[in-house]
Amino acid sequence: MLHVEDPRASGHAERAEPPPDLETMHVEEVFDAPQHPEGRRADPAGARRRLAAAAVHARRPCRRPWDHWVPGAGKELERICREWAEKEKVELIFDLITSNGDKDLLTLMAEGQAGAGHDIIGLRTWYVEAQKQRFVPVDDIVEPLIQKYGKVATASEYCGKIDGKWLAVPSSYASGELPPVARIDLMKQYAGIDIQKMYPAPGMGAPDKELQDNWTWDTFLKAAEACNKNGHPFALGLSTCTDALNMAGSVFAAYGAFLVNEKGDVTVRTDATRQVLDWFKRLSKHLPEEVYAYDNASNNKALISGYSALIMNPPSAYAVAKRDAPKVAEQLWAFHSPKGPNGRYDPSNPYFWGIWNFSKNIPAAKALLAHISQREIQEKLVTASVGFDVPPFASFMDFKIWEEEGPPKGTNYNYPSRDDAIPFLSGHPAPLKIGTQMYAQALLIKMIAMHTHQGRSVEDAMSYAESEIEGYLRT
Q1: Tens of pLDDT, residues 67-79
Q2: Which of 8, 176, 191, 307 would suit a FRET pair with 262, their CA atoms being 20 to 30 Å apart?
Q3: Per-domain boundaries in the chain
Q4: Spatial separation of the C-alpha atoms in residues 459 and 268, rounded to whole Å
Q5: If we measure between CA atoms, which residue out of 391, 469, 381 comes closest to residue 433?
Q6: DSSP state string for 109-130
Q7: How far from each other are the two terminal CA atoms of the chain, in whole angstroms?
Q8: What is the mean pLDDT of residues 451-459?
Q9: How far apart are CA 57 and CA 72, in angstroms?
């Protein structure tokens, strides 16, 4: 989050501490900078000129750090913001509020209800919709970025552009994807798949197109069975944790099983839905029983311990393995999801920056967001995250960190979606309000669990989904 306060305003209340703890993977950031004297919106350059004069009496900076999943990434964001503030003669208050226990969500809802708090707030995937009436439109930041860098990723536009207006700025910081990351040795030994040959890094030769074409969800199923028989199962959650929701969404999309279309029509009862539920039934036989109780750390632990052959996750698992289990890390390789009849989809979770409409420092907040959205700044943030963070622009996918990180060198090169791999957010293409509910209520996973764990029929699972969606449509 970013908090910016007009130093000349009198009688302001001290900022309350954010509400007590709540769970996720991301973070809420806040920065401080002063406002235009008359409170008018202005272009970023104009805002910077006015900031210098207003900053003399600003409050002294304070911060509450949050540790990114990758050590050091949050500190780099702080360094960049403080460097900007020093250059613009702005006193900065920088708070990084933990997402553990959903503390960021609690803070978001509390500040939105109170109409007071920070100026800029970090927003996880669905949170723009949750407070959309309280955010300042930021088309004047995002549209110039699009003109400069090209189209924004579909998942970012889906959540950040509401009713034709950008209500939050898409960010690389804390935006992640969750493609497969697997053991090179175990996949080759037990599944007969050379994942480095299939998806090499630069300097390793051309990709093996035959292997890529054969990398389907049916091939994935065979690999899961082979690795499980040899004591190294795939660690794919079938619980309601977000890692499981994201994985399920990409498989449903690959089969063309979309429960609600872009018009809001309920499209649950299709052959594609039947096929994908049957696929999960077959997969479940080769997964550990505890996958129904997984949280977002369970898969990482299974991989880093040497137990699992494959998970679907950002490079945070690799970063921790590199620190704690280097021999395991040397065998890890990220690559794209299998394809299905409808294509190849990598799970994606975008992140955003929003500006509260009760902020007294809107021009300053816009100036900072415009600054940290530039390519050179985005590359610094992505590098600090060891390639965990994925920018919203396809033109940024040539950042060197993905080629260089290792060992093995290039381990994360195929982590961000490229070529025929489409970054996908579970819930799309349903209207955002419905997609948000399907994700929040873990609808896909509940359907899967009904069929795979409870022994209910495919027809029962589809009837349940239809009933749930009809309820979302009534609210």
Answers
A1: 466 668 888 999 9
A2: 176
A3: 2-175+350-401, 180-348+405-474
A4: 10
A5: 469
A6: HHHHHHT-S-SEEEE-TTHHHH
A7: 30
A8: 97
A9: 31
**Is residue 128 a contact partner of residue 351, using CB atoms and an 8 Å limit?**
no
Q: What fold is seen in the domain 180-348+405-474?
A: D-Maltodextrin-Binding Protein; domain 2 (3.40.190)
d(CA 461, CA 124): 29
Largest CA distance in the chain: 70
Tokens of 87: 């250059």
User: pLDDT tens digits, residue range 315-368?
Assistant: 889 989 999 999 999 999 999 999 999 999 999 999 999 999 999 889 989 999
Give the pair of three-digit tokens for residue 222. 């065979």
Q: Up-side HSE of residue 21: CA atoms within 13 Å toward CB?
A: 4
Report which DSSP code applies to 269.
S
**Treating both helix axes as pointing N-terminal to C-terminal, what angle do 271-284 and 458-474 enclose, rounded to 10 degrees?**
120
2-175+350-401 with 180-348+405-474: one CATH topology?
Answer: yes
At residue 27, what are phi and psi to the nearest 5 degrees? -150, 160
pTM of the model: 0.84
416 HSE (CA, 13 A, CB side): 25
- Architecture of the CATH domain 2-175+350-401: 3-Layer(aba) Sandwich (3.40)
Q: What is the 3-state secondary structure (H, E, C) of 312-369?
A: ECCCHHHHHHHHHCHHHHCCEEECCCCEECCEEEEEEEEEEEEEECCCCCHHHHHHHH
Q: Which residues are CB-contacts of 210 (< 8 A; sequence separation ≥ 6)?
A: none
Which tokens belong to 340? Answer: 């299905």
Q: Distance of CA 163 to CAs 129, 415, 475, Å?
A: 11, 31, 18
DSSP 216: B
CB-based contacts of 340, cutoff 8 Å, min separation 6: 216, 217, 251, 253, 254, 255, 256
How far apart are alpha carbons 276 and 163 in whole angstroms?
A: 32
